[in-house]
Automatic annotation (TrEMBL):
Keyword vocabulary terms for this entry: Membrane, Transmembrane, Transmembrane helix
The organism of origin for this protein: Deinococcus soli
Name recorded for this polypeptide: Membrane protein YedE/YeeE
Pfam families hit by this protein: DUF6691
InterPro entries: DUF6691 (IPR046513)
Regions that span the bilayer: 20-38, 58-78, 103-126, 132-152
Keyword Oxidoreductase applies: no
Length: 158
């Protein structure tokens, strides 16, 4: 009979919890890295975002373009690889629905909020972590908008 080695302080039935905690640690570290990249690339800078909307600088367009290119390549690799998730399920990328209205209305809504707040949802927590406390107002309205979408989603074009 083989016996699995025990970890001091960890009970035999808690191995899935330890694995889940280790997985969460990986996500935390990836999120911290992403936050540092956002700050160092100035993607979380209100001034850089305003320069972009005023067509005064290529900086943000270059960052967004590289993100789109990275997303395209990653999506194609995921579609072709047949990789499994941590739970053992095959990762699939579902195709987008046809039509233009939902994308135009969603883009206009997102862009209006981005232009008014000077920040998209990605860097909200990065800015809070950097001590930019007025971003709490942006977070509150982002949460309100998400809630309102949940309430109104059956009446919106999809």
């Amino acid at each position: 009979m083989t016996r699995t080695p025990s970890i001091p302080g960890v009970h035999a039935g808690s191995a899935p919890r330890v694995r889940a905690a280790a997985g969460l640690l990986v996500y935390l570290l990836a999120g911290l890295y992403f936050g540092v990249v956002l700050v160092k690339s100035e993607a979380a800078s209100w001034y850089r975002i305003q320069e972009m909307f005023r067509f005064q600088s290529f900086h943000m367009f270059g960052l967004i373009g590289s993100a789109v290119l990275t997303g395209l390549v990653t999506t194609q690799l995921l579609r072709r690889s047949g990789l499994n998730s941590r739970d053992g399920q095959t990762i699939t990328v579902t195709p987008k629905e046809k039509g233009w209205r939902r994308y135009v209305l969603g883009g206009l809504t997102f862009g209006t909020g981005w232009g008014l707040a000077g920040v998209c949802p990605g860097p909200i927590f990065v800015l809070l972590g950097s001590g930019v406390w007025p971003t709490l107002i942006v977070l509150a309205f982002a949460l309100l908008g998400t809630y309102l979408y949940g309430v109104l989603k059956d009446r919106l074009p999809h």
